[in-house]
Design brief:
Layout: H1 6-24, H2 28-51, H3 54-76, H4 103-115, E1 119-122, E2 129-130, E3 152-155, H5 160-199
Antiparallel strand pairs: 1-2, 1-3
Helix pairs in contact: 1-5, 2-3, 2-5, 3-5, 4-5
Length: about 200
């Protein structure tokens, strides 16, 4: 059904390495880079869906539709109260009140727990120490301590908001590529069946 060359395998390995690197060090720069790549691939596929023919056109159309559909689902998934005004799948605060529902969001949450290198930071330099990330049920809020007490905040590394955006961008590209490949296979199979029917 599907075949992959050595070159294709190396491309997928390089892609996986870049994905892991961008997630581990997620930042506004990585958001801009991955979003730029997604835009280039989307508009390139859009051009192919108009100008190309055959399997290339079929794959390009499905690629664009998949990316657009995934983006719409991520941005319009309702929360527990049916409200779609806030994109819960991109919400860096993933708790019991606003959980991500998509399996891709849940998987990103597990990956984040593994990659999180956050710290609880005190205004007293001698009290800086590493702790595991806060539980998903509760998110650390800034409080106003007594004047004599040091302020303790949680510094996320990588920032969860940028991590989720980068992760969903990669998911949209991956799903787009997989469905495009599947559409091309269906197109080729349908063409062969039609040729065999006409020749028979």
């Amino acid at each position: 059904m599907f075949s992959i060359s050595l070159r294709g395998m190396l491309v997928w390995i390089a892609w996986a390495a870049i994905v892991l690197l961008s997630l581990m060090y997620a930042s506004e720069l990585w958001v801009a880079l991955v979003a730029g790549l997604a835009m280039l691939m989307f508009f390139g596929a859009l051009a192919n869906s108009i100008a190309a023919r055959g399997t290339r056109r079929a794959g390009a159309i499905v690629f664009c539709l998949t990316m657009a559909a995934y983006a719409w689902i991520v941005l319009n998934m309702p929360d527990n109260y049916g409200d779609t005004s806030f994109a819960v799948e991109l919400n860096p605060i993933v708790g019991e009140l606003m959980p991500g529902r998509l399996p891709t969001t849940r998987l990103l949450g597990y990956v984040y727990q593994v990659m999180d290198r956050g710290q609880r930071v005190s205004t007293n330099p001698s009290e800086r120490f590493l702790l595991p990330p806060p539980s998903v049920e509760s998110v650390p809020l800034e409080t106003t301590p007594p004047p004599s007490a040091p302020t303790i905040t949680y510094s996320e590394n990588p920032p969860r908001a940028q991590f989720m955006i980068v992760g969903h961008l990669w998911w949209s590209l991956l799903l787009g590529c997989l469905t495009a490949r599947y559409a091309q296979w269906i197109y080729v199979r349908g063409s062969r069946e039609q040729e065999s029917t006409e020749s028979g």
